[in-house]
Amino acid sequence: MSTPALSGGGGLFTGFTKLCKGLAVVLVVAHIVVQLFPPAVTYLALIPARTIPFAWNLLTAGYVEQTIYGVVISTFALLFIGKILEPIWGSKEFVKFIFIVNFLTYVCVFITAIAFYYATRLEIYLYMPISGFHGVLSGFLVGIKQIVPDQELSLFGIAKVKAKWLPSIMILLSVTASFFLADSVAYLPMLIFGTYMSWIYLRYLQRRQETNFRGDPSDEFAFASFFPDFLRPVISPISSIFHRMFCGRSEAFNEDQGYGLGGIPLPGSDSIEASRRRERGARALEERLATERLATVKSADGSHIDASEEV
Predict the structure, then answer these.
(1) Strand, helix or coil at 130?
(2) Residue 137 — pLDDT band, cuts 50, 70, 90?
(3) Where are the membrane-spanning stretches (predicted)?
């Protein structure tokens, strides 16, 4: 089966889902609120020193963009990537993914900020307002890696890369930029933790609608797959820690379901289902893009007919 392209040609600006449009409105409105009422940042963004008792900012911080550049990038990325992922995952799972990845990302950022404060005694780690949708956006790239890993994309019009390398390239560029651009350092923890938390969720926790299985046990989605081949022998033993952490030591074998714990199939027990899932995702994406192309052709034909009648 041919792998579909991730761009929709003439339908590039069509097909945005209602859910993504609604979430985009939330990002824009939140940005307007903090611009018109700057004190609102204190209550909506993550300020580690005030997270207790303002614990709700672990949830709200991810939807507050403090800069115009941030809200523009986040809004467009949500709309374009969302129209790929939501039809494949389903609206309920799409919202669940955003909620969980956003929350876990900011929990990790909070813990990291506290740790840096105790290590350095610099109060900037306690009082800097941290917010943004970047953690979820980096998680979206992990979702693309899972669904269409072998899709080739043009990177800045210079070289073609496969979709499975998008999260790794994003992290590499972000780390590199942090050495030269001081402002980019603030986004780095969100990008790293967003990538990491989304992989954990998709790898071990996401429940599939078609089956009772959780996660994606395929070798192509293992933690080591984020790294070049020469580093994988070093990374693979480390990644085994996650398997023991989420699956436990006591695993029972069932001929019908594979490895399970407490009656629930575990990651690694259904690699065939994981392969079928990627095929269904690629097929659904291909059908969606074909529909958009057909709508674009019909629209162009209609315009041509109208012009002929005027003549």
Answers:
(1) strand
(2) very high
(3) 23-47, 67-85, 97-118, 124-144, 165-181, 187-205
pLDDT at 243 (0 to 100): 67
Cα–Cα distance for residue pair 277/242, rounded to 1 Å: 23
pTM score: 0.78
* CA distances (Å), origin 32, targets 21, 46, 125, 166: 17, 18, 26, 31
How does 121-154 read in b/e, with b if 16+ C-beta sit within 10 Å? eeeebeeebbbbbbbbbbbbbbbbbbbbbebebe
| Tokens standing for residue 263 | 């009656």
The β-bridge relationship of strands 252-254 and 159-162 is unpaired
The three-state secondary structure class of 212 is coil
Instruction: Report which DSSP code applies to 208.
Output: P
Angle at 192 between CA 156 and CA 47, to 5 degrees: 120
CA angle, 79 as apex, 219 and 193 as ends, to 5°? 45
* Full set of structural domains in the chain with CATH: 9-310 (1.20.1540.10)
